[in-house]
Every structure is written in C-alpha cells, then in structure tokens.
Amino acid sequence: MSLTGTLDPADRTVLDARRRRRRYWRRLTRDPVLFFGMLIVGVVVCVAALAPAIAPRPYDDELPARRLLAPFSSYNHQLFVLGTDQLGRDVLSRIIYGARVSILVGTVGVVTGAVLGVGVGLVGGWFEDWRSTLLMRLADIQLSFPYLLLAIAVMAVLGPSLLNLVIVLGLRTWVGFARVVRGSVLATKPLEFIEAAQATGAATPYILLRHILPNVIGPIIVLVTLEFANLILLEATLSFLGLGVQPPFPSWGTMLSEARDYLFTDWWLSIPPGVAIMLTVLGANLLGDGLRDILDPKLM
Amino acid sequence: MIIYILRRLLQVVPTLAGVMVVVFLLIRVSGDPTQLLLPPNATPADRALFRKQHGLDQPLAVQFVRYVDSLAHGDLGRSLVDQRPAADVVFERLPATVELAVSGMAIAVVVGIPAGIASAVWRGSALDRLAMASALVGQSMATFWVGILLMLVFAVQLRWLPVSGRGGVRHLMLPAVTLSLYIMPVLARMTRSSMLEVWEQDFIRTARAKGLRERAVIVRHSLRAALIPVATVLGLQFGGALAGAIVTESVFSWGGVGTLVLDAIYKRDYPVVQAVVLVIAVMFMLVNLLVDVGYVVLDPRIRQT
C-alpha cells in the first residue's frame, strides 16, 4: 500500500492486477506439482495434435510377417522401439495415435459436462423453487447409479461409436459442476452487490453471467482438469471392455484388451498403453491439484 | 432421531422412482424394443405378437405402470438366452460380486485409513510424502491395468497365485487387491485431510491444553470426529467398488454380475442387462441409506437437527 500511495486509484488497480498476475505466473512455474502437471499434459496434447507428423508409420499398417516383434527389434532395417502387435502394427505409432482419442474424448466430454452443469447450477441456485428441487433430484438420481454400469448399459443399447462415447462421457460430469456452481450462487446471492445490480435494472441472465459466474471460475477450472483425468480413465475402461472406440483405430484401452490375449507369450505388449494412460491421467491430476492450491484452497 | 431416519427414508422414494424410469427408458430409447428384446432372426409376426403380449403397443405411461407393477411382484423379465427369470440369473451371480467388493473394500480400509492417519500425524514427513505420492499415482492407474500387472507378476511370472477363475482364498487374492487399489487412494487422502481439518477445531486445542498426551488426543478425540466424513466417502465408494468389480471381474474371469452383464451385452440379452442395472442401483442406494442412518449413531450433532 505504501508503495502505491502516491498513485491515483486507477493506476493502482492496474498495478495490483499486474502484480497479482506476475505472482500467479511465478507460482505456475515454481510449484513442481503444477509444473510437471502442465509439462505432461502439454506433451500429450502436442503428441495428439502432431500424431501424423511424429508417428513412424500409420496406425493400421499391418504386416503378418513382422507380427509380435519384441521392443527394440528391427525388421527390414527398420527399428520398432516398442515392438509390434499381433497384426504386425507398430506399437509406438499406435500409442501416439491413441493420444488423439484420449485427448479428444476427454476434452469434448468435459466441456459438454461443464456447460451443462454450470447452466443447471446457475438456474438451480438462483431460482429456489421447484426448478431447483427438480434439477437437484436429477443429480441425485444420476449419483445413485455406479456410473460405469450405466455407461456400459447405455453404450450397449446405443451401440459403440465415438459420438455415443462422447455423449455418455459428457453426461458423467455435469453433476459435479452443477453442485459447485449452485453452492456458489446460493452464497453470493444475498450479497449487496447483487442487490445493487438488481436495483440498476440488470436482467437476471446478465447478473448470473457477469456477477455470479466469475466468483466460481476457480473451482470450475480445477474441476475441469480433475474430471478430464477421470474421463480418460473411463474411456480407457469402456474401450477395454469393447464398448468404446472400435478397431482399427487405436485407443489405449482397446490396445490393452488385445494385449491381454498375449500375456503369457508377449507380456511387453501390456506395458506401453498402461503407462500412457497412467502418465496422462497423472499429469491432469497434478495439474488439478496444483491449480486447486492456487485458485481454491477450500476445495478438497 | 427417528424423525431424521424417517425423513431420510422418504427421500429414497423419488430417487427409486427415478432409477426405475431410467432403467425403463434404457430399453426403449433406441426406438424399437423388440430389436433388443427378441433374437435378431425373429420374424415381423413374432415381433408383433411379442409387442402385444408384453403390452409394448400401449402408451408409454401405461407401459411404465405395468413395469412398476411387475417389479413389485419381483418380476424383472426373462433372459432371452435360456428363458429363465432375469432376477434368478442375477441373484445367482450376486454373491460372487459381493464377496469381491467386500474383500476389496476391507483391504482398502485396513491399509488406506491407517495410512491416512499416519500421514496426518507425521505431516510433511517422508512417510507422508511417500503415501500421498503413491495415492496420486494409484489414482491415475486404470484398474484393469493394475489387474493385468498383478496377474503378470504374481500369476504368470512367479506362479504364486492362479491366473483367473473363482475358488478359494488364493483365487480371491489378486482380484481383491486390484479392486482395493482402486478405492484405497481416495480413502487415504480423505482420511488425511479430514484428520487435519479436525485438528483445527477448538475441542482439540482444549484437549491439548488440559495436558492430554498426544496419543489420547489422536485416538480418543480426533479419530471419531475425523472418521465421519470418511464414512460417507466409504458409502459412496461402495458404488465405486461395484463398478470397479465389473472391470476386475472381466480381467480375472470372476463369475459375478460384472462378467454376467458383459456376457449379456455380447449375447444381446437385454432383459438381463436391465435387471443387473436395477439390482446394483438399488443395492447402492440401500448402502448409502445405511451409511446415513449410521451417522446418526456416530455424530450426535445430526440428532438435534
């Protein structure tokens, strides 16, 4: 305060904002949890985006003559770092293309869930009448199923496809967002600045979006990263059970399900997809934990 | 206290109704239920007859009332594969899943809660860091991959334990440990943060101020308060355990409802799929109800409200 005492108030807010931003940035780069989280997620996103450029060969390049090569073996003077699978496809290339499925499904799923959940939370928190009760009951009903079972049943009825997968994953996360946003709306609504906004004649949607939503943006960002991690696991699980991404397109879960048949003879096939899933999910979890420490100390 | 329990029981009604609506719509959402409920080679005449017999030509509301009515009589439909009542098929497989889920949860509780307490007591120590880092890594591993790895090491390489199937304790060990590793991280992290939160409270400061030994503060004063939120998580994790059991069963060919539902999907036996979803959802609801009622016993504060 003493430093900025001579500045006029407008300059002071600019300076404060700049200083705050710099402090955030310093924490982003110095906190190891956050740093490794960003690094891992960043690498996986880049791998997914650049897959055709960095993969040594196409993901569906089959050749029976070179099937089930061990890691680091060569065939025809070409090195296969992670070996080949039962159809002679390069495991490394399939891992690289598999990142596309995880990132795509995780991102679209979490955005769908967030948009839906934030909408429900805003409406459910603002209108404390039957609308609120109805929406929150819907959330309870969804929570009363182990979601994996519901997802399995829905995928079985609708049939496995990328679109259905995204729908099922998107519906997984809305409840969390709705609850956080609703809680924040309930806490903010009685405050004076909301009353002031109403007194100036602001429309309800405007108040919700401009005055209430910004208060809850921190927890939403944290939830986005953590749910992203959960969705990647859920996609891998559904694909492992044969209800997710369909062959020949590679998903890490599908690769593990195929590798299981060769556990006795070619066990190394089961390692790379599992490590890929673990690292990606770990990265997103680290990112979420790190962001939570900065943005929202209260959230568990 | 009784009023609280009654009120909680009443809350089950709308949720149960919702569960029934979801399961009811599940089969009908795809348009023509006869495509799902009859074998693919059924003739149009068969389909028409089936529709008439099962009232599928009636309005949805009428169908729903009939569906609820048949549920009330314990009728969950018939398996298309062997024509047996779907309820019998499910309940025959249920004990295997419960056995797996309960042993998995038991291992998770026995290891996870003490780990969480130790982490909280020696906060910031190497032990705490190790425990929390393992929890984070454990949370990031796919259950089925953990199962595959355990199988690879202990069954395929070392040959200490059987690869799959159901039998005695030796058969149970790998699947139960796999499932426990799915629940343990959440439990350990939750216990730790709950303990740390309790220590901020006034009654702990009072206990310390009156000169109680640290041991007494931890065991007698903190644990009881700290374990209440853990109990809720445990109830919710039971659903997680059931879901995790489906995947674990499929890795280890464990003959429970998990393999049943996957098998039923593969054979397009939708009445059985429907029955499994309903039975598991109702079980999950009952467990959470029990947890909530159990609270009243654990936490005197709830009795007053």
Describe this structure in words.
The complex is a heterodimer of chains A (300) and B (305). Chain A is mainly α. Chain A is 69% helix and 2% strand. Chain A has 12 helices and 2 strands; from the N terminus they run αααββααααααααα. Chain A has a two-stranded antiparallel sheet. In chain A, helix 11 runs antiparallel to helix 12. Chain A is globular and about 75 Å long. The longest helix of chain B is centred in the C-terminal third of the chain and has 39 residues. Chain B is flat, with a radius of gyration of 24 Å. Chain B is mostly helical and 305 residues long. At the A-B interface, helix 5, helix 6, helix 10, helix 11 and helix 12 of A face helix 1, helix 6, helix 7, helix 10 and helix 11 of B.
Summary?
Chain A is an all-alpha fold and 300 residues long.
Layout: helices, strands, pairs:
The complex is a heterodimer of chains A (300) and B (305).
Chain A: H1 9-30, H2 32-49, H3 51-54, E1 73-75, E2 78-80, H4 91-126, H5 130-143, H6 147-158, H7 162-188, H8 192-199, H9 204-212, H10 217-240, H11 252-259, H12 271-295
Antiparallel strand pairs in A: 1-2
Chain B: H1 2-28, H2 33-37, H3 44-53, H4 60-72, H5 86-121, H6 126-140, H7 143-157, H8 169-198, H9 202-209, H10 214-252, H11 257-266, H12 270-298, H13 300-304
Helix pairs in contact in B: 1-12, 5-6, 5-8, 5-10, 5-12, 6-8, 7-8, 7-10, 8-10, 9-10, 10-11, 10-12, 11-12
Strand order of the largest sheet of chain A: 1-2
What is the C-alpha radius of gyration of chain B, as a whole number of Å? 24 Å
Helix and strand string of chain B, N-terminal first? HHHHHHHHHHHHH
Determine the N-to-C terminus distance of chain A.
Answer: 33 Å
Order of helices and strands of chain A: HHHEEHHHHHHHHH
Structural class of the secondary structure composition of chain A? mainly alpha
Ranges of chain A where pLDDT stays below 50 over 5 or more residues in a row are 1-5
- Count of DSSP-assigned helices of chain B: 13
